[in-house]
Input
Amino acid sequence: MNNARPFIIIPPGEILKDELDERGWTQDEFADIIGRPIQVVNEIIKGKKAITPETAVLFSAALGTSADFWLNLENSFRLDLIFHEKQDRSDISLKARIFELAPVKEMVKRKWITGFTSTDELHTKILRFYDIPDLDQLKPLSARLRKAKTKYSSDPSIRAWQRKAEIEAEKLKVKKYSKALLSKLADKLALISGSTNDADTAAVPALLAETGVRFVLLPHLSKTSVDGAAFWIEGKFPVIAMTLRLDRKDNFWFTLLHEIAHLLNKDTRVDIDLYHQELDAVEIKANEFAANHLIPEEKYQEFLDETEPLFTRNRVKSFAEKIGVHPSIVVGRLQYDEKIPWSNLRNLMESIRPVFAKYITQ
Output
């Protein structure tokens, strides 16, 4: 498409004046011919008044031209005026591209990017945030994401969230990564969940750091519904990022173990689970890892055989105490397996946010 505009703008009135001069007509005579006031003709010739479809029809009848001819001249003239008044519109195209690739409003609201007053400054801030030389080199998503099955999910928002998690993770000091230590910690987490002392749960970031895993708590952006993600910085430094989107202890522990499974298997392919797609084998495996670490399958089946369908509060608490996990984990498993409605036993669910208040990054 040719978007070039003329250097010199010629109003359609000048074309009209040439037509009148060629015929030897004055403006007054032409006004009489088309039945319009002389002022209208004069303002059109000076470019002060636009040629309307009605006027174009009158011109075509008087001058033997088409009405489209005059309307096209008028439209081109008005566009040329706009382009000459604001010659450089590249900033609009650039700004549109930036907004297409990044959730700018939310990033500004959270102060992930600040201090810009122009599109060029915004462009610079965005490139700096993503650590790229230009927008064409935005990195593809490279995390295993655990998220809700929503109808819509925004890739730019997920990418921005992951990048911010990466930025925060790079600030953390951890020991050298040890797969063996992480595997041992995974075996202990279920018992930590059962502790009545929230300080034990609050120690999880430090325990992960001992294994070499950077742990970040970062609320999700809109249109993402992300619960957690596992990814690697430069392919060497493991990160677990969580949102606490569902402020429940059972969701926290399940998501944490789910992401640990991905790190232990070094799963890096992107899995966003859009549009109610079925989970792939890797996600199913991570789910099974988390579920079995929290509630061993054999013990869970025994509990079902002894209790179903009468899952009372006391029975659930007794079973949770027996296997050493928080009662909400048992409730969450029963809800997920559709053994009880999502509204049942809500009084056994506890908030997780207060435990990690000082770790949450906005």
